[in-house]
Amino acid sequence: MVRGICLAALAVVVIVPAAQGEIRGTYIESRTCQVYTGPCFANGEVGAAGRNAIMAWDIQDGAQDGVDLSGLRVIVVIDSSETIGFGGLKDHKKLKSVILVDEEADTDQRDALIAFARKHSGRAGDHVVRIDDSKIAMKLDVSTLKGDVEADKGVKISTRKARLDDCICSNESAYYPPLTKLKNFVPGVTLEGSYQGRGLGARWSTPGDRSAYMAIFKY
Hints:
By secondary structure, the chain is mainly beta. The chain has helices at 39-45, 107-120, and strands at residues 2-3, 23-31, 36-37, 52-64, 67-68, 72-80, 95-102, 128-134, 136-141, 146-151, 155-161, 173-174, 184-195, 204-205, 209-218. Helix content is 10%, strand content 44%. Strand 7, helix 2 and strand 8 form a beta-alpha-beta unit. The protein is globular.
């Protein structure tokens, strides 16, 4: 469990050109349960919420399998049979995911983005039921911690940093860890988080929850 306060801020890191073999950028995650919360609130959602998640990467620099992916984006949307909690997706009995690939990618880049998404989304990458090309817009301001993701295949996320008035029990923490390895991350509020696309047999909208992560990644 990662302790924090409601005014926790993501360290401002200048993303310099990646070293050979590295890939860097920003990341936004939204879940259908609270991730920045106290134990009582989190326990109350186990089994009743948190079966869905959206993971979005904006690759600013670097390559996957020798293919340059600078300036491209990819999204993984997840539907699970159980609450996505401390163990991430490790022990879930039923799991389905959809990959949305930046429509700006050429054939080689598309294949590399899919490989990247499978690799960094854990078991979700082993249970992909649909892959779609999509127009994807994504931006994360690491100084203000305001993030936006939109894909024309049904994804919409808008996030902000947590404030003092988001605290309920004064025991909040980053209770459930992010679903992927991250260099720097901070939990926040999902102003809008929805999936209205195809492939999962599930659609959702969870506005106003403390259910987001905003981050810088380096692999």
